[in-house]
Specification:
alpha+beta; eight-stranded antiparallel sheet; 8 helices; 8 strands; about 40% helix; transcription regulation; BAT_GAF/HTH-assoc
Length: about 220
């Protein structure tokens, strides 16, 4: 059975430390589009919040970035097309060589949040030990088996669990909201309307099964 870990790593040990520190109101999320080119690690980054034009200029001058361009623009977000330098590409490939598959990646202020998949928990420990020895600390926030009881415990489907977890990480529930339904849909690979409905249904299931006493949901 595979295992998924949610990790935090300082931006200074990963990427874009200076742009993120200079623009703390801006959040970036790696687009889920797959790529098979060795030069195309994290080729697309969605940015939301703050002065996105200024943030793009900051990326262009950042260490680890060779080139950056605007791939897509919406009313409240910009997708940047980034070509990383050899050192950053090597870091990503080193993570893969130590059995980590990158499921999601996002960053704000001074840290990146990474969701990594491993074949087993022993690989997680080996992964952490290796990068601690190289001076890069990947701090695990949570570790779980995706097909295990974590989602089933409260009656959530796998899709509902994924949607709720993605919504929390993206700031969808924050006040003010840091991610729109459309942006959440981008993360999940579905429409904004479908993402909103999935979150509402999952929230109802979670509250009914985790918070309400027997009979309360029926008004008894």
């Amino acid at each position: 059975m595979g295992v998924i870990g949610d990790f935090t790593v300082p931006a200074a040990s990963f990427a874009l430390a200076e742009p993120l520190a200079k623009h703390p109101e801006t959040k970036v999320t790696a687009d889920r589009q797959a790529t098979h080119s060795p030069r195309e690690v994290f080729p697309f980054l969605w940015a939301t919040g703050g002065d996105l034009n200024a943030f793009g200029d900051s990326i262009a001058g950042a260490p680890a970035v060779e080139t950056v361009s605007v791939a897509e623009r919406t009313d409240d977000a910009v997708m940047f097309r980034v070509v990383w330098d050899e050192a950053f590409q090597t870091l990503i490939h080193e993570m893969v060589d130590h059995h980590a598959s990158i499921v999601e990646a996002s960053a704000a202020s001074d840290a990146w949040s990474l969701r990594l998949r491993f074949a087993d928990e022993e690989m997680v420990s080996s992964f952490q030990r290796h990068f601690e020895e190289t001076g890069r600390r990947f701090e695990v926030r949570s570790l779980w088996h995706p097909s295990g009881p974590r989602q089933r415990e409260y009656g959530l489907t796998a899709e509902q669990y994924e949607a709720l977890a993605a919504a929390v990480r993206a700031g969808y529930f924050d006040v003010p909201r840091d991610a729109s339904a459309a942006e959440l849909g981008e993360r999940l690979g579905i429409s904004g309307n479908a993402a909103s409905q999935r979150v509402r249904r999952g929230s109802a299931v979670l509250v009914r099964n985790a918070l309400l006493l027997d009979g309360e949901a029926d008004g008894t």
